[in-house]
Design brief:
Length: 111
């Protein structure tokens, strides 16, 4: 959650993404959070011996499955954030290129 909050705040403050894109990112992060909380709740049920009747082997299999789910979610989050960062960098470069051309042609102003 810390990772997505840092990335989301950076994307929002960059002003390089539209409102619709920010809403989409928020929805993606929301789904990831919801799934992660579901996994944590399931993990708590599995590791609390009095909650579910399971053999040790069944518990270990459940823990392994939850770990794999969480690892997949983490990898997706990293990839999603990296792609958004790349898009932001491309847009920032394009904006800078446009401003440079304007200055070169005397239609923009120097800072």
């Amino acid at each position: 959650m810390k990772q997505y909050k840092i990335a989301f705040n950076a994307f929002r403050s960059s002003n390089l993404f539209s409102i619709e894109e920010m809403e989409y990112m928020s929805a993606v992060y929301g789904r990831l959070t919801k799934e992660s909380l579901k996994n944590l709740e399931e993990l708590m049920l599995i590791v609390t011996a009095s909650k579910l009747r399971m053999s040790d082997d069944e518990r270990l299999n459940g823990i392994d499955r939850i770990y794999a789910n969480m690892e997949d979610a983490w990898l997706f989050l990293c990839d999603f954030n990296n792609r958004a960062k790349m898009l932001g960098l491309q847009r920032a470069k394009a904006n800078n290129d446009v401003e440079t051309v304007k200055i070169l042609y005397g239609i923009g102003k120097l800072n």
